């Protein structure tokens, strides 16, 4: 009997093949790579590579009380903290002023108003970068906390390879509830993509929770000028501009080199956050959009093809089962490796459901951006 598959089954097979290609070329080499997790102090070299840690804060007094003690106790030979108070109405400015009185390496920048039609956070960061004393810049958000006092040292060592940008990872803290699990899974998947692509020499984004670049790189891209009116993109679009100019990126994934923040606690908050981040995607280079889009499309079509295969007369159960076994085992192996490499523990037994839920949500988010474009302003 001649071998025959329906168009839907062939689509399933094609989707699985595409995902296998991504896993073999990008994800598995990244997940299986062994990297040094500890660093010995090197005061001489650290003094030659002073770092300005830049933090923009708006109404974040409580968060800064968690963050600043960890920043100020970083084990690094020479660094400063540039703290930007962006139009705060709480005690942020008072707390920041107190810090400057006791710590000479804390510098305060105050933003009283943002010019019309400029993205507030990008404007605030630009002012902070302009006053930064040192040529190496390390960024995190006010609601993040480094996982160790070695964070700065690990991230700064990324520049030793001659890189202009250093891409770090910023997981969310584990908490009860399905939303937290979905947010943490999405963060793992996003980290797996942008970090594995970067290790293949194809960097396309970073996250502002844990990102470093040279001041020279910021000046070469003219700062945020190409997207200063767009609310999102102070991290990924700057990386896009830098890579376009030939700047090189290094990847740092050590457990001590991460920053942790609290995940959104409501579905509405997460939805608006994702819409804001995804809105920057249309400014990515075509090659990056094609690479990311092909992966997302292959995953999304896999689930749609599965539904189609179940409703047609006489489903081809052997093809469907085979595609699911291969795809599920590939995905679990990929996520397990990424979880180990990024030190971001995930509930492996729940990953298939989280994977399906994420790509369904991604479809809805994409549709909402096409139909309604109004990303929230940075608060």
UniProtKB/TrEMBL annotation:
Keyword presence, Glycosyltransferase: yes
Keywords: Glycosyltransferase, Membrane, Transferase, Transmembrane, Transmembrane helix
PANTHER family: POLY-BETA-1,6-N-ACETYL-D-GLUCOSAMINE SYNTHASE (PTHR43630:SF1)
Name of the protein in its database record: Glycosyltransferase 2-like domain-containing protein
Family to which the UniProt record says this protein belongs: Belongs to the glycosyltransferase 2 family.
A UniProt-annotated Pfam family: Glycos_transf_2
Annotated organism of origin: Solirubrum puertoriconensis
Domain of life, per lineage: Bacteria
């Amino acid at each position: 009997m001649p071998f025959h598959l329906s168009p839907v089954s062939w689509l399933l097979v094609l989707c699985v093949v595409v995902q296998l290609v991504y896993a073999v070329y990008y994800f598995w080499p990244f997940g299986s790579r062994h990297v040094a997790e500890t660093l010995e102090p090197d005061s001489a070299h650290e003094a030659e590579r002073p770092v300005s840690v830049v933090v923009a804060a708006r109404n974040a007094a409580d968060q800064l009380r968690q963050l600043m003690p960890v920043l100020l106790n970083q084990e690094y030979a020479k660094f400063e903290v540039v703290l930007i108070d962006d139009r705060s109405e709480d005690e942020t400015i008072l707390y920041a002023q107190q810090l400057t009185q006791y710590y000479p390496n804390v510098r305060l920048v105050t933003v009283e108003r943002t010019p019309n039609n400029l993205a507030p956070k990008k404007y605030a960061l630009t002012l902070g970068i302009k006053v930064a004393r040192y040529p190496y810049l390390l960024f995190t958000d006010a609601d993040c906390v480094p996982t160790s006092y070695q964070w700065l040292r690990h991230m700064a060592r990324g520049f030793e390879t001659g890189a202009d940008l250093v891409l770090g990872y910023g997981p969310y803290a584990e908490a009860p509830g399905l939303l937290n699990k979905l947010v943490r899974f999405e963060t793992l998947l996003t980290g797996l993509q942008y970090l594995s692509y970067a290790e293949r020499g194809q960097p396309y984004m970073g996250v502002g929770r844990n990102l470093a670049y040279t001041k020279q790189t910021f000046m070469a891209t003219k700062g945020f000028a190409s997207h200063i009116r767009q609310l999102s993109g102070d991290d990924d679009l700057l990386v896009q501009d830098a890579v376009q100019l030939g700047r090189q990126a290094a990847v740092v994934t050590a457990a001590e080199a991460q920053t942790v923040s609290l995940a959104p606690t409501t579905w509405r908050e997460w939805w608006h956050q994702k819409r804001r981040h995804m809105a920057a995607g249309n400014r990515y280079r075509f090659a990056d959009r094609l690479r990311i889009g092909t992966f997302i499309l292959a995953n999304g079509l896999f689930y749609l093809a599965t539904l189609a295969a179940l409703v047609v007369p006489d489903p081809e159960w052997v093809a469907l089962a085979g595609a699911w076994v291969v795809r599920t085992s590939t995905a679990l192996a990929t996520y397990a490796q990424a979880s180990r490499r990024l030190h971001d523990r995930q509930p492996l037994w729940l990953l298939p459901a989280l994977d399906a839920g994420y790509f369904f949500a991604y479809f809805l988010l994409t549709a909402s951006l096409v139909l309604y474009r109004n990303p929230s302003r940075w608060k």
